[in-house]
Queue: 3 jobs
Job 1
Amino acid sequence: MKRFFLYLFVAMAALSSCQKEEKSVFDQTPDERINAALAKYQADVLSSPNGWKALYRTGTGQAFNFYFTFNNQNRVVMYSDFDTATTHPRESSYRIKALQQPCLIFDTYSYLHMLADPNPYVNGGDAGAGLVADFEFAIDTVKGDTIKLKGRQNGTELDLVKATQHEADLWTKGDWTRALGLQHITDFLTYFKRTTIGGVDVDVEFYHYSRQIVFFTYNSSGIRTPVTASFVYRPENPNGAVFTNPVKIGTATISSLTDMTWANGKVNTKVNGTTNIAIGEAIAPVVVNKNGATSWWLYKIQQGYWVNLGFHQNGVDDAFGVQSIPGFYYMAYLPAYDTATKTTYWDWMAYAAVKDNILTIPNSSSFVPTFITDGRAIFNTYKPDSANAPLYVTLTTAAFTDPQGYYFLQVGPTTIDMVGVRDAKTWLRWYWVE
């Protein structure tokens, strides 16, 4: 037994001696290794003499082009095709920092932040979420001419690719703005934007932030069918909007709209780089749906009501200021309300607001439609505005009772647009609520 303990003591002593002689497999401390990695990545972002180009796809699926130049003072100058304003340079700060792993952080408000902004008026996204974009990125890999980044919050991917001098010039000399000519469609004041493609007259809707173009075709009854194309902007070869997937209209299969110019109140462009078309204002549907107005009104059998957020007029949303009502909720219209007694609330519209968590009706009106055989509805009021009615009420009443009336166009299963016949510059969007 004594011999056993002697052997055990010798073994433990030998093991202790070996442990004292162990050395770290690294030549640097963890902090030194982290700092070295950060310095390397800092050198990487500074390594492109002509800056970096990037195609960034948000969490909601839209694709935006960017151009970045970084300096050694932690400043970055960027351009974007987010809108025409963002094709001008904007400077902000950046950092290379260790946050569990090396990260590239854009830490002051920039064009990237605009995509993530929770205010829907900034980017057209959902309130509180924006376009589900990132501005803090983990550095994934650096290989060849590409730095791959991954968003820390939403997992979006941003690949920085070294730009050529020519690609840099496209941004810094303003050539990129030519690719954004389709945005001029939003300069039209009329609801209808008209062109002819493949022998078919179509209306065009342009959604810049969602990167979509919708072509509306009509059948002989005036029923519209949307044909939707998602697109990415390209500065050249071709210059303009390149569709993610081609769409077919009439005899034409469309893969791009390029070489855009804005002249004489029209957007002039080429289909697939060859066929010239012009998009301009129109004041009536291609074919009027003669049942559109009555279909809207007869939706009452669904036991619900229509709501809207105020009139759009001459390019201005909520042109009459109904959303300035304290606690504004919506404007609600109940078709043929109280039909048994035909009271003054026949076809009643309420200006609804919320106060102390209670729904209130600070003002109301009555607009009764007369349906014309050509598809229009003309409204009269059976509840005149009081002498001291707010301006938003009198303006709304004046618009509703325009003697030329309104067209009604189906937008979605429970969404209908009411468009002024006079000049198509006044319209209202209805949403059905059950």
Job 2
Amino acid sequence: MRCAAARTCAVPSARWPPPPRGSANATSLTGLGDAITGGLFAGLTQAIFNGGRLRAQVRSNEAAADTAFANYKGVVLLALEDIENAIVALDSARRRETQFAIAYDAANASAILSRSQYRTGLTDFTTLNQQEAALLSAQNGLTQARSDQATALIALYDALGGGWDPSVVPQAPERGATPIFATEPR
């Protein structure tokens, strides 16, 4: 964009005749006044005959600068859109993770209660199986929500200009960090 603007500013200076300089042509004229007048006249006629070409070149350079600015503006708007979309996706994934965490805790408590009731003979195997299936479904939903959140965070990082190195293999979390299966209190 700077290059296009610099080209636009450089062309108008070519419209004006160059200042007179001493040269071999000036010695052949009869006086100093003739040398100055001759140099100015030659410069003016050159500027007059090239004026249309120079004006067209200025307009062309201005159009190139406008195009470069419009392209830059479009890229900035697309980048802002990517950032906004990534933030919305991350916020949505965080809300879903919170909801699935609540559902997982409830399903875990229900499964623990069903196991206890099954051992004492207060409920049948079908009820226990349904509670275990509900727990598994809640666990799958929570895992998917966490995966969506990680994906949205990566998209936000990328939209903000961060890089992603596919050669780096992420490490799995430690086993004791988060509960994977429902456990009964001891």
Job 3
Amino acid sequence: MHPEEKKQPFSLKHTVVSTLAWWYSVFLGWTTRVYWFKTDEAIELEKSGKGIIYAAWHNQQLFLLYPYRGQKIAALISQSSDGEYIARVLPHFGMLAVRGSTTRGGARALIKLMQAARAGYRLMITPDGPRGPIYQVQPGILFLAQKLGWPIVPGGISLSHKFKAGSWDKMRIPLPFGKAVFQYGKAIWVKDEADIPRAKEELQAELNRCSEASEMFCNKVHFDSTKG
């Protein structure tokens, strides 16, 4: 059993666009070579079957679906019209869309995420979403980690073939026939509410470090593969 989300009214536009997005996500998965760099700690946490909160910056989220398919993950998705497209795609990959925001109406979103966690889902959050500021961790993910007693596993995702949108977060739109690099960082634990400022600083630094490391390796792989 999993927490039920309120059924959205039928929309032809959302139905058509989300179906095309699903097909495109699968096509990307088939045509993109993925490199994983996980810490030993993250590997052990994943093997343990215990709760994890995955975190990545908002502009890296569009290539998170296919690589994490079938892993019983609940992702926090904004209640905006754009969020509706993503929310309709997630179930095709065995994932649960939890609608809401950790900033606006944050308490309700946190309750929904805790319900998903109790139902056996691991969680996935973009801590600078849904509206920024870019690369600034909002406190909701830290309160959630503290209440659940779960670690936050930060990650950086880089793409060799992408288009950068003109949105507030400079969203990376993945393009096919490229390479993707997933770089995991040190798990962040939040002991209590007094520990939140320290954890926020550490999480922000780890997300930036992972993003830089994945970008560096992605550029190296792309360069090496085009030499000679």
